[in-house]
Predict the structure of Ectoine/hydroxyectoine ABC transporter substrate-binding protein EhuB.
Amino acid sequence: MAPPLQPLRRFREAPGPTRRSLLAGVAALGALGAAGCSRVPTAAATGGGDLLDRLRAAGVVRLGIAGEIPFGYIDRNGELTGEAPELARVIFKRLGVDRVQPVPTEFGSLIPGLNSQQFDVVAAGMYVNAERCEQVIFSDPDYQMLDSFIVRKGNPKGLHDYRDVVEKKARFATGTGYAEIAYAVEAGYKKSDILIVPDQVAGLNAVEAGRVDVFAGTALTTREVVKKSRKAEVTEAFKPIVGGKPHVDGGAFAFRPTETRLRDAFNRELAELKKSGELLRILKPFGFTEDEMTDLTAKELCGG
């Protein structure tokens, strides 16, 4: 199911627990989420957990989502969609679980909600990082993400990465809580000089109006938002420099630490979808391209 054309919300953030509010529509589904939040027995701490068996017996898996387009959200028809839920439908069907049920929550509540058994799996395009890997276990990433810039047509200042922004003293903007804030600061841009706007739509407007020279976001969100613009374009995707090295983010599904059996079964099916090319077919309606396909592993992104 292709997503409706709406502003994309941010799905990663600078270090810290904060995350932006839910999209309109998720709040309206609060009752649905509450209906799916009954607790289940604690998984066995040994043998990789028994959740997969219980899900097969129940015939349904509860997905924690954060109401973010294009990752996991309720569409205008009240239906669950997004790259993660659609992928979950396919994989869990292969694992013998026929139905998925959304449990909407705020992004910052996803890991606590998972570990308190309010839902079974986080299906929200969550970035894998070392801090989160101490709290949950991740599948291997189903996508990777680079950065890109929104600039005026023709890219008059020749801005292609954060170093260019610093060296050319460009007026720089990015979104509230975006990881790009830290990337720009690491490149030498003064944090107090960054224009912080709500999202990529506001960033596009700032570039078109000439208030800034560049807006930084993910390759996917910037690519989508400029499609109808006559004044702005998107640059080629690039890897930001983190700790002196080129950095690539990857998004994945999260599981409770005891449920290694379910995570491993999920990974096996995901690997098959990658190998066959089916993964790209599932994600493509949500703006993903071949550039977002990845062989990164959770172990690499967890730093182990």
Observations:
- The longest helix spans residues 260-276.
